[in-house]
Amino acid sequence: MRLIHVFSAPQSAYFFLIGQLDFMISKDVEVTVIMPLDKEFNQKFKVIQPNVKVININFERNISFRRDLSCLIKLIKVFKKVNPNIIHLHTPKASLLGALAARILFKKNIIYQMHGLVSAFGNNIQKGLLYWMERMTCSLSTKIYAVSESLKQFAIENKYCDKNKISVIENGTINGIDYKIQFNTSNIYQNNVELNKITDNKFIIGFVGRILEDKGIEDYLITLSKCTEEKLPIIGFVIGPDESQGKFNELLNKYNLARNTNIYVFGQQLQPENYMVHFDILLLPTKREGFGLVGAEANALEIPVVGYDIPGFRDAVLSEETGLLVDFENTDKLFEAVLRYYKNPSLKKAHGENGRKRVIKDFDSSLIWKSLHHEYKKLLNEK
Q1: pLDDT over threshold 70, residue 122
Q2: Assigned CATH for 185-362
Q3: Residues 284-300, mean pLDDT to the nearest whole number
Q4: Which residues of 60-82 are buried (b: 16+ CB within 10 A; e: fewer)?
């Protein structure tokens, strides 16, 4: 079996495919990954996946007819050379161009991995264009895998695709959760002197994700501000790349939050779990999710989660069981949920323990990999 994964973001390839590709190779699958050139991530990807061939095609996020046509031609050339049995597409731009290239070459097995629907947000022009792109990708693909049941139902109800074409692998996620090694507190070094100094006798409210509006960074800061106004001994830990184009610093000033006093910002981390183990709770008021992966990862570390009750996120976090989910864009309710955990350590502990049990039961990486490999074989055996 010859398999090609296509990504328009190297970070996504790195984080989404850890472990999975080694498993596929162990099953005699020849794997190629197409992604843009990024020296840091390319090098790290090659270190952890030395048996995977990497081909760089620099997809643009914005629409550019000349550059998109160039990428399409490059994809056609790669597909001709590798001659894959299965093409597995990720991220909107790469997926549309990849599906077009595959159809031009009459490829039979074109999988679109639906991580989330960006067309659900933005202004009317953006929504319309992105909706058309998503529908076109779904139409060109022969199979669609949604990362959650909520996302699947949303896609069907909003006519992105036919219900017979879309399915969910096991209980969702793209790669499962490595609860045995990566997200296991017994395997994580927790004696970082500097971090322990910061966290001593403090209630740590963590945020993990890209720093931008969609991920709810402003609502996170509003909630932190409410906590400081109430004189709660809290500190915010923010992990993730700043993609706010300067707005994040403006928000810190707006809500009177000072770096290295009320909030610590650690940037993007290849091993965020080393910081997450210091969290008391994860507060992630994201506005859209295909599947709330970070929420499930926090649960694997026995950290309860506070966020909005939205499709995708509620697939990862069960309210009143592994976390507390509140009405969308209601920051007063977010604060109340944080306060419940602060005042009730036994509830925090119970929800954290429930979270890890659920991850072990429903989101085991090895189970996802086996099921995906089985799906690949089924596709090859279909006439």
Answers
A1: no
A2: 3.40.50.2000
A3: 95
A4: eeeeeeeebeebbebbbebbeeb
